[in-house]
Amino acid sequence: MKKTSLVFLFFIAGISISCTDVVTVDVPEAASRLVVEASLDWEFETNGNNQTIRVSQSTPYFTENLYEPVTTAQVKVINEETQEEFVFTHADNGYYFNDTFNPIIDNSYRLEVNNEEHSYRSTETLVEGTKIIEITQSKEEGFDDEIIEINIVFDDKENVENYYLLKCKNQEMGFYNFITISDEYFDGNTISVFYELLEDQDTGVEPFEAGDVAEVELYGISKAYYDYLTLLINQSEASGNPFAAIPAELKGNIVNENPAAEPAFGYFRLTQVDKTTFTIQ
């Protein structure tokens, strides 16, 4: 099996702007829309029974509250092959839980969310993932040979279109970096992804050092979710760049059954995921 290497370099750029005059601008407020965060992830070595879906309402940009929890929605997921129904019960702050979910690879599932007078639907297939073979560290594979990068290695299944989401972070950091991967050019190979952090004094990001713990998650995802995430990442990276292209509209896959009404924000995904940590030496 061939080995293919991919390199990803991460840093966060900050821009400082100062002015002496205060300008008041009337900002129009869009109508509030339902937000559904339905990521059903089946971790390797577990039964995948415990799942969570978050439901909220969008809020104006300058509002202190980032979201308004929805506590009275009816939420369920249906396996379209077996017709099993999994009802999600509200627990707290817009989070709905189910502890009997039965994940089956390649089965199609339908999400149904009913809130007030609106009904929302989405259908997605549970995508098979792959396990991480090994994680190593080096200084020779990245862009800067004086700092440490980690190398995440996994096998790609041959003769199948595979798409992956790789999430990495230093455990001390509060956020993950998202990397989308397609096997279009390395079908059936062993894939090595290099993840490197560069120092940024504005954001506090620093290169890996001995004793740091890297958290790594590898998801098998659908082509549609790959396209959605890739667009989202590209728009996020272009944020603040005055020369960037005009962002395309980012559409999730959760539709309102009333064609005249707005769809929900968010995405319904079903994935298989391998999670691990690696301690820098």
Primary descriptors:
single chain; about 280 residues; mainly beta; Immunoglobulin-like; 2 domains; 13-stranded mixed beta sheet; four-stranded mixed beta sheet; about 5% helix
Write the layout of secondary structure elements.
Elements lengths: L2 E8 L23 E10 L7 E7 L10 E2 L4 E6 L5 E8 L2 E4 L9 E8 L2 E8 L6 E7 L10 E7 L7 E8 L6 E6 L7 E8 L15 E9 L1 H16 L16 E2 L8 E15 L2
Parallel strand pairs: 1-14, 2-17
Antiparallel strand pairs: 2-3, 3-4, 3-7, 5-6, 5-8, 6-7, 8-9, 9-16, 10-11, 11-14, 12-13, 12-15, 15-17
Can you characterise this structure?
The protein is mainly β and 281 residues long. It has two domains: 3-12 and 129-227, Immunoglobulin-like, CATH 2.60.40; 34-127 and 251-271, Sandwich (Immunoglobulin-like), CATH 2.60.40. It is built from one helix and 17 strands. It has one helix at residues 223-238; strands at residues 3-10, 34-43, 51-57, 68-69, 74-79, 85-92, 95-98, 108-115, 118-125, 132-138, 149-155, 163-170, 177-182, 190-197, 213-221, 255-256, 265-279. Strands 2, 3, 4, 5, 6, 7, 8, 9, 12, 13, 15, 16 and 17 form a 13-stranded mixed beta sheet that branches. The protein has a four-stranded mixed beta sheet with strand order 1-14-11-10, with no helix packed on it. Strand 8 and strand 9 (118-125) form a beta hairpin. The longest helix is centred in the last third of the chain and has 16 residues, at 223-238. The model is unreliable at 11-19 (pLDDT under 50).
